[in-house]
Amino acid sequence: MSGGVDSAVAAARAKEAGHEVTGIHLALSRNPKSYRSGARGCCTIEDANDARRAADVIGIPFYVWDLSDRFHTDVVEDFMDTYAAGQTPNPCLRCNEKIKFAAVLDKALALGFDAVATGHYASVVQGPAGVELHRAVDGAKDQSYVLGVLDEQQLRHSLFPLGDTPKTKVREEAAARGLLVADKPDSHDICFVADGDNTGWLREKLGDRAPNQGGEIVDEATGTVLGQHTGTYGFTIGQRKGLRLGHPAPDGRPRYVLDIEPVSGTVTVGPRERLAVERITGDRLRWCGAPLPAGTMLDGPDVTVQLRAHGAEHRAVVRVLDGQLDVELVEHAHGIAPGQAVVVYDGTRVVGSATITRADRVPVGAAG
Protein backbone atom coordinates (compact mmCIF):
# COMPACT_ATOMS: atom_id res chain seq x y z
CA MET A 1 0.00 0.00 0.00
CA SER A 2 1.85 3.05 -1.31
CA GLY A 3 -0.58 5.56 0.14
CA GLY A 4 -2.31 6.16 -3.18
CA VAL A 5 -5.81 5.43 -4.39
CA ASP A 6 -4.95 2.42 -6.56
CA SER A 7 -3.31 0.26 -3.92
CA ALA A 8 -6.04 1.17 -1.41
CA VAL A 9 -8.81 0.00 -3.73
CA ALA A 10 -6.80 -3.10 -4.66
CA ALA A 11 -6.54 -4.01 -0.97
CA ALA A 12 -10.26 -3.43 -0.45
CA ARG A 13 -11.15 -5.60 -3.43
CA ALA A 14 -8.83 -8.36 -2.29
CA LYS A 15 -10.52 -8.44 1.11
CA GLU A 16 -13.97 -8.32 -0.45
CA ALA A 17 -13.02 -11.31 -2.63
CA GLY A 18 -12.54 -13.35 0.53
CA HIS A 19 -8.77 -13.21 0.91
CA GLU A 20 -7.06 -12.70 4.26
CA VAL A 21 -5.36 -9.37 3.54
CA THR A 22 -2.54 -7.54 5.32
CA GLY A 23 -1.51 -4.04 4.21
CA ILE A 24 2.21 -3.45 3.75
CA HIS A 25 3.84 -0.06 3.21
CA LEU A 26 7.45 -0.02 2.05
CA ALA A 27 9.90 2.33 3.76
CA LEU A 28 12.34 2.88 0.93
CA SER A 29 14.45 5.57 2.62
CA ARG A 30 15.55 5.76 6.25
CA ASN A 31 15.07 9.51 5.90
CA PRO A 32 12.19 10.04 3.43
CA LYS A 33 13.08 13.69 2.90
CA SER A 34 16.52 12.66 1.63
CA TYR A 35 14.80 11.41 -1.51
CA ARG A 36 11.87 13.78 -1.91
CA SER A 37 9.66 16.01 0.20
CA GLY A 38 5.95 16.65 0.23
CA ALA A 39 3.07 14.36 -0.61
CA ARG A 40 4.02 13.17 -4.08
CA GLY A 41 2.37 9.73 -4.04
CA CYS A 42 5.34 7.61 -3.01
CA CYS A 43 8.11 7.32 -0.43
CA THR A 44 7.07 10.06 2.03
CA ILE A 45 5.86 10.07 5.63
CA GLU A 46 2.57 11.53 4.39
CA ASP A 47 2.13 8.54 2.10
CA ALA A 48 2.75 6.09 4.95
CA ASN A 49 0.08 7.87 7.00
CA ASP A 50 -2.36 7.80 4.07
CA ALA A 51 -1.76 4.06 3.65
CA ARG A 52 -2.34 3.42 7.37
CA ARG A 53 -5.62 5.37 7.35
CA ALA A 54 -6.80 3.45 4.27
CA ALA A 55 -6.00 0.13 5.98
CA ASP A 56 -8.02 1.24 9.02
CA VAL A 57 -11.03 2.06 6.82
CA ILE A 58 -10.77 -1.28 4.99
CA GLY A 59 -10.33 -3.09 8.30
CA ILE A 60 -7.06 -4.92 7.69
CA PRO A 61 -3.80 -5.18 9.65
CA PHE A 62 -1.08 -2.78 8.54
CA TYR A 63 2.70 -2.91 8.78
CA VAL A 64 5.67 -0.95 7.48
CA TRP A 65 8.56 -2.99 6.05
CA ASP A 66 11.96 -1.32 5.93
CA LEU A 67 13.55 -2.16 2.58
CA SER A 68 15.60 1.04 2.34
CA ASP A 69 18.99 -0.69 2.10
CA ARG A 70 17.85 -3.09 -0.58
CA PHE A 71 16.10 -0.27 -2.49
CA HIS A 72 19.20 1.92 -2.40
CA THR A 73 21.44 -0.88 -3.66
CA ASP A 74 19.19 -2.41 -6.30
CA VAL A 75 17.33 0.66 -7.59
CA VAL A 76 19.05 3.93 -6.67
CA GLU A 77 22.63 2.72 -7.19
CA ASP A 78 21.61 1.01 -10.43
CA PHE A 79 19.99 4.26 -11.60
CA MET A 80 23.18 6.24 -10.91
CA ASP A 81 25.50 3.65 -12.47
CA THR A 82 23.37 3.42 -15.61
CA TYR A 83 23.29 7.19 -16.11
CA ALA A 84 27.04 7.41 -15.44
CA ALA A 85 27.53 4.87 -18.25
CA GLY A 86 25.67 7.15 -20.69
CA GLN A 87 22.50 5.04 -20.72
CA THR A 88 18.88 5.72 -19.82
CA PRO A 89 17.46 3.51 -17.03
CA ASN A 90 13.89 2.92 -15.93
CA PRO A 91 13.98 2.60 -12.13
CA CYS A 92 10.31 1.56 -11.93
CA LEU A 93 11.07 -1.68 -13.78
CA ARG A 94 14.05 -2.34 -11.55
CA CYS A 95 11.93 -1.67 -8.46
CA ASN A 96 9.28 -4.13 -9.60
CA GLU A 97 11.91 -6.73 -10.45
CA LYS A 98 14.12 -6.39 -7.38
CA ILE A 99 11.86 -4.98 -4.64
CA LYS A 100 8.09 -5.43 -4.99
CA PHE A 101 8.12 -8.85 -6.65
CA ALA A 102 11.41 -10.19 -5.31
CA ALA A 103 12.28 -8.88 -1.84
CA VAL A 104 8.65 -8.30 -0.82
CA LEU A 105 7.32 -11.46 -2.42
CA ASP A 106 10.10 -13.61 -0.97
CA LYS A 107 9.42 -12.25 2.51
CA ALA A 108 5.66 -12.66 2.09
CA LEU A 109 5.96 -16.29 1.02
CA ALA A 110 8.35 -16.99 3.90
CA LEU A 111 5.74 -15.58 6.30
CA GLY A 112 3.05 -17.86 4.90
CA PHE A 113 1.24 -15.51 2.54
CA ASP A 114 0.20 -16.78 -0.89
CA ALA A 115 0.56 -13.69 -3.06
CA VAL A 116 1.36 -10.01 -3.34
CA ALA A 117 -1.48 -7.81 -4.58
CA THR A 118 -0.77 -4.33 -5.93
CA GLY A 119 -2.64 -1.47 -7.55
CA HIS A 120 -0.89 -1.87 -10.91
CA TYR A 121 -3.10 -1.68 -13.99
CA ALA A 122 -2.54 -5.08 -15.60
CA SER A 123 -4.10 -8.54 -15.51
CA VAL A 124 -2.85 -12.03 -14.72
CA VAL A 125 -4.85 -14.80 -16.40
CA GLN A 126 -4.52 -18.54 -16.70
CA GLY A 127 -3.72 -19.35 -20.33
CA PRO A 128 -3.50 -22.69 -22.13
CA ALA A 129 0.21 -23.03 -21.33
CA GLY A 130 0.16 -21.47 -17.85
CA VAL A 131 -0.04 -18.08 -16.21
CA GLU A 132 -0.01 -15.02 -18.49
CA LEU A 133 0.41 -11.26 -17.98
CA HIS A 134 -1.92 -9.05 -20.06
CA ARG A 135 -2.57 -5.37 -20.61
CA ALA A 136 -5.19 -3.61 -18.49
CA VAL A 137 -8.60 -2.65 -19.84
CA ASP A 138 -7.76 1.03 -19.35
CA GLY A 139 -5.15 1.55 -22.07
CA ALA A 140 -4.30 5.04 -20.85
CA LYS A 141 -3.33 3.67 -17.42
CA ASP A 142 -1.93 0.30 -18.50
CA GLN A 143 1.23 -0.56 -16.54
CA SER A 144 2.11 -3.91 -18.08
CA TYR A 145 5.30 -2.37 -19.49
CA VAL A 146 6.85 -1.85 -16.05
CA LEU A 147 5.76 -5.38 -15.08
CA GLY A 148 7.45 -6.96 -18.09
CA VAL A 149 10.37 -8.01 -15.86
CA LEU A 150 8.25 -10.48 -13.84
CA ASP A 151 8.94 -14.16 -14.41
CA GLU A 152 6.54 -17.10 -14.37
CA GLN A 153 7.09 -17.87 -10.69
CA GLN A 154 6.47 -14.27 -9.64
CA LEU A 155 3.31 -14.02 -11.76
CA ARG A 156 1.88 -17.14 -10.10
CA HIS A 157 2.03 -15.26 -6.80
CA SER A 158 0.79 -11.87 -8.04
CA LEU A 159 -2.66 -10.29 -8.01
CA PHE A 160 -3.66 -7.13 -9.88
CA PRO A 161 -7.27 -6.46 -8.84
CA LEU A 162 -7.61 -3.27 -10.92
CA GLY A 163 -6.78 -4.70 -14.34
CA ASP A 164 -10.42 -4.81 -15.46
CA THR A 165 -11.41 -1.30 -14.34
CA PRO A 166 -10.90 2.22 -15.78
CA LYS A 167 -9.11 4.65 -13.45
CA THR A 168 -12.13 6.95 -13.22
CA LYS A 169 -14.20 4.08 -11.82
CA VAL A 170 -11.45 3.25 -9.32
CA ARG A 171 -11.62 6.79 -7.93
CA GLU A 172 -15.42 6.63 -7.74
CA GLU A 173 -15.17 3.31 -5.92
CA ALA A 174 -12.62 4.71 -3.47
CA ALA A 175 -14.95 7.59 -2.63
CA ALA A 176 -17.89 5.21 -2.17
CA ARG A 177 -15.77 3.11 0.21
CA GLY A 178 -14.92 6.19 2.28
CA LEU A 179 -11.23 6.17 1.40
CA LEU A 180 -9.77 9.65 1.84
CA VAL A 181 -7.23 9.05 -0.95
CA ALA A 182 -9.99 8.96 -3.58
CA ASP A 183 -8.93 12.32 -5.02
CA LYS A 184 -5.21 12.08 -4.25
CA PRO A 185 -3.13 12.98 -7.34
CA ASP A 186 -1.20 10.22 -9.08
CA SER A 187 2.53 10.06 -8.43
CA HIS A 188 4.78 11.22 -11.25
CA ASP A 189 8.46 11.34 -12.08
CA ILE A 190 10.95 9.15 -10.23
CA CYS A 191 9.93 8.60 -6.63
CA PHE A 192 13.37 9.23 -5.12
CA VAL A 193 14.25 12.37 -7.13
CA ALA A 194 13.03 15.59 -5.52
CA ASP A 195 10.98 17.86 -7.80
CA GLY A 196 11.71 15.66 -10.81
CA ASP A 197 15.08 17.36 -11.38
CA ASN A 198 17.05 14.29 -12.52
CA THR A 199 20.08 16.28 -13.65
CA GLY A 200 20.42 18.23 -10.42
CA TRP A 201 19.95 15.10 -8.33
CA LEU A 202 22.55 13.19 -10.34
CA ARG A 203 25.03 16.07 -10.17
CA GLU A 204 24.74 16.05 -6.38
CA LYS A 205 24.81 12.26 -5.91
CA LEU A 206 27.24 11.03 -8.55
CA GLY A 207 30.31 13.01 -7.53
CA ASP A 208 33.48 11.27 -8.68
CA ARG A 209 31.50 8.31 -10.00
CA ALA A 210 30.77 10.25 -13.19
CA PRO A 211 33.48 9.43 -15.76
CA ASN A 212 33.73 13.07 -16.77
CA GLN A 213 32.75 16.41 -15.34
CA GLY A 214 32.18 18.08 -18.69
CA GLY A 215 32.69 17.87 -22.41
CA GLU A 216 31.70 19.08 -25.86
CA ILE A 217 28.40 19.12 -27.70
CA VAL A 218 29.16 18.27 -31.32
CA ASP A 219 27.13 18.42 -34.54
CA GLU A 220 26.96 14.95 -36.11
CA ALA A 221 27.05 16.08 -39.74
CA THR A 222 29.87 18.65 -39.58
CA GLY A 223 31.78 17.80 -36.42
CA THR A 224 31.43 21.43 -35.31
CA VAL A 225 31.63 22.04 -31.56
CA LEU A 226 28.36 23.76 -30.71
CA GLY A 227 28.71 24.11 -26.95
CA GLN A 228 30.00 22.74 -23.67
CA HIS A 229 28.31 20.81 -20.87
CA THR A 230 29.07 19.87 -17.25
CA GLY A 231 28.31 16.13 -17.39
CA THR A 232 26.87 13.56 -19.80
CA TYR A 233 24.45 12.38 -17.09
CA GLY A 234 22.42 15.51 -17.83
CA PHE A 235 21.44 14.20 -21.29
CA THR A 236 19.26 11.46 -22.74
CA ILE A 237 18.93 10.24 -26.32
CA GLY A 238 16.21 12.23 -28.07
CA GLN A 239 16.50 15.25 -25.76
CA ARG A 240 15.71 18.59 -27.37
CA LYS A 241 15.32 21.10 -24.54
CA GLY A 242 18.09 22.46 -22.36
CA LEU A 243 20.96 21.91 -24.83
CA ARG A 244 22.00 25.59 -24.76
CA LEU A 245 23.72 25.46 -28.12
CA GLY A 246 25.65 28.52 -29.17
CA HIS A 247 25.15 27.93 -32.91
CA PRO A 248 21.70 27.54 -34.52
CA ALA A 249 21.31 24.93 -37.24
CA PRO A 250 21.70 26.35 -40.80
CA ASP A 251 18.13 25.32 -41.63
CA GLY A 252 16.80 26.73 -38.37
CA ARG A 253 15.41 23.38 -37.22
CA PRO A 254 15.91 22.13 -33.66
CA ARG A 255 18.66 19.65 -32.84
CA TYR A 256 18.30 16.55 -30.70
CA VAL A 257 20.74 14.40 -28.72
CA LEU A 258 21.78 11.47 -30.92
CA ASP A 259 24.64 9.88 -28.99
CA ILE A 260 26.30 10.12 -25.57
CA GLU A 261 29.91 9.06 -25.03
CA PRO A 262 30.52 9.12 -21.27
CA VAL A 263 34.28 8.49 -21.29
CA SER A 264 35.24 11.35 -23.62
CA GLY A 265 32.26 13.42 -22.53
CA THR A 266 31.11 14.01 -26.11
CA VAL A 267 27.40 14.59 -26.73
CA THR A 268 26.42 14.38 -30.41
CA VAL A 269 23.38 16.22 -31.74
CA GLY A 270 21.53 16.34 -35.05
CA PRO A 271 18.08 16.58 -36.71
CA ARG A 272 15.09 14.55 -35.52
CA GLU A 273 15.10 12.19 -38.51
CA ARG A 274 18.46 10.88 -37.33
CA LEU A 275 16.73 9.53 -34.21
CA ALA A 276 14.83 6.94 -36.25
CA VAL A 277 15.74 3.40 -35.14
CA GLU A 278 15.16 0.28 -37.22
CA ARG A 279 16.72 -2.46 -35.09
CA ILE A 280 17.27 -3.08 -31.38
CA THR A 281 19.43 -5.57 -29.49
CA GLY A 282 18.82 -6.38 -25.82
CA ASP A 283 20.12 -8.61 -23.05
CA ARG A 284 19.00 -9.48 -19.47
CA LEU A 285 16.05 -11.39 -20.90
CA ARG A 286 13.01 -11.86 -18.65
CA TRP A 287 10.12 -14.09 -19.73
CA CYS A 288 6.57 -13.55 -18.42
CA GLY A 289 5.84 -17.26 -18.69
CA ALA A 290 7.80 -20.22 -19.97
CA PRO A 291 11.22 -19.10 -21.34
CA LEU A 292 11.48 -19.04 -25.13
CA PRO A 293 14.43 -21.06 -26.47
CA ALA A 294 17.14 -19.59 -28.68
CA GLY A 295 16.09 -19.70 -32.32
CA THR A 296 12.47 -18.72 -31.62
CA MET A 297 11.05 -16.07 -33.96
CA LEU A 298 7.93 -14.07 -33.18
CA ASP A 299 6.28 -12.58 -36.25
CA GLY A 300 2.76 -11.64 -37.15
CA PRO A 301 0.27 -8.79 -37.07
CA ASP A 302 -0.16 -8.99 -33.27
CA VAL A 303 3.55 -9.00 -32.37
CA THR A 304 4.57 -5.58 -31.08
CA VAL A 305 7.13 -4.00 -28.78
CA GLN A 306 6.80 -1.10 -26.37
CA LEU A 307 9.89 0.97 -25.62
CA ARG A 308 8.69 3.45 -22.99
CA ALA A 309 6.32 3.24 -20.04
CA HIS A 310 3.63 5.22 -21.83
CA GLY A 311 4.96 4.90 -25.36
CA ALA A 312 3.33 3.62 -28.51
CA GLU A 313 3.38 0.01 -29.69
CA HIS A 314 5.56 -0.77 -32.69
CA ARG A 315 5.08 -3.70 -35.04
CA ALA A 316 8.18 -5.86 -34.94
CA VAL A 317 9.82 -9.15 -35.80
CA VAL A 318 11.46 -10.56 -32.67
CA ARG A 319 14.20 -13.21 -32.66
CA VAL A 320 15.50 -14.95 -29.56
CA LEU A 321 19.25 -15.42 -29.74
CA ASP A 322 21.61 -17.00 -27.22
CA GLY A 323 21.14 -14.68 -24.24
CA GLN A 324 19.99 -11.81 -26.44
CA LEU A 325 16.90 -10.44 -28.12
CA ASP A 326 17.01 -9.12 -31.69
CA VAL A 327 14.13 -6.79 -32.59
CA GLU A 328 13.56 -5.67 -36.16
CA LEU A 329 11.15 -2.73 -36.09
CA VAL A 330 8.58 -2.86 -38.89
CA GLU A 331 7.57 0.63 -37.76
CA HIS A 332 10.55 2.83 -36.92
CA ALA A 333 10.85 4.26 -33.42
CA HIS A 334 12.55 7.51 -32.43
CA GLY A 335 14.94 8.40 -29.64
CA ILE A 336 15.62 4.91 -28.29
CA ALA A 337 18.55 4.63 -25.88
CA PRO A 338 20.61 1.81 -24.37
CA GLY A 339 19.43 1.11 -20.83
CA GLN A 340 15.74 1.37 -21.69
CA ALA A 341 13.58 -1.74 -21.66
CA VAL A 342 12.01 -3.35 -24.71
CA VAL A 343 8.85 -5.24 -23.76
CA VAL A 344 7.45 -7.75 -26.24
CA TYR A 345 3.69 -8.29 -26.72
CA ASP A 346 1.59 -10.80 -28.60
CA GLY A 347 -1.72 -8.97 -28.74
CA THR A 348 -2.45 -7.98 -25.14
CA ARG A 349 -0.19 -10.67 -23.66
CA VAL A 350 3.24 -9.68 -22.36
CA VAL A 351 5.78 -12.19 -23.71
CA GLY A 352 8.83 -10.81 -21.91
CA SER A 353 11.40 -8.05 -21.86
CA ALA A 354 15.06 -7.20 -22.33
CA THR A 355 17.36 -4.29 -21.53
CA ILE A 356 18.41 -2.45 -24.68
CA THR A 357 22.14 -2.61 -25.35
CA ARG A 358 22.14 -1.28 -28.90
CA ALA A 359 19.79 0.77 -31.08
CA ASP A 360 20.65 0.85 -34.80
CA ARG A 361 19.52 4.02 -36.50
CA VAL A 362 18.08 4.19 -39.98
CA PRO A 363 20.88 5.06 -42.48
CA VAL A 364 21.17 8.68 -43.65
CA GLY A 365 18.66 9.34 -46.43
CA ALA A 366 16.51 6.30 -45.62
CA ALA A 367 14.62 7.52 -42.51
CA GLY A 368 10.90 7.92 -42.87
UniProtKB/TrEMBL annotation:
Major place of localization? cytoplasm
**Residue ranges of domain tRNA-specific 2-thiouridylase MnmA-like C-terminal in the record:** 279-356
Q: Where is this region: Interaction with tRNA?
A: 141-143
UniProt site (Interaction with tRNA): H120, Q340
Q: Which CDD domains match?
A: MnmA_TRMU-like
Task: Please list the residues that bind ATP.
Answer: L26, G119
Protein's UniProt keywords contain GTP-binding = no
Reactions performed catalytically: S-sulfanyl-L-cysteinyl-[protein] + uridine(34) in tRNA + AH2 + ATP = 2-thiouridine(34) in tRNA + L-cysteinyl-[protein] + A + AMP + diphosphate + H(+)
Q: Where in the cell is it found?
A: Cytoplasm
Catalytic EC class: transferase
> Keywords in UniProt for this one?
ATP-binding, Cytoplasm, Disulfide bond, Nucleotide-binding, RNA-binding, Transferase, tRNA processing, tRNA-binding
Q: Which residues does UniProt mark as catalytic?
A: C95 (nucleophile), C191 (cysteine persulfide intermediate)
Record's superkingdom?
Answer: Bacteria
Instruction: Give the enzyme's EC designation.
Output: 2.8.1.13
Please indicate if the UniProt record lists Nucleus as a keyword. no
Q: Which family does it belong to?
A: Belongs to the MnmA/TRMU family.
Role summary: Catalyzes the 2-thiolation of uridine at the wobble position (U34) of tRNA, leading to the formation of s(2)U34.
Under which name does UniProt file this protein? tRNA-specific 2-thiouridylase MnmA
Q: Which lineage ranks, top first, belong to the organism behind this chain?
A: Bacteria, Bacillati, Actinomycetota, Actinomycetes, Propionibacteriales
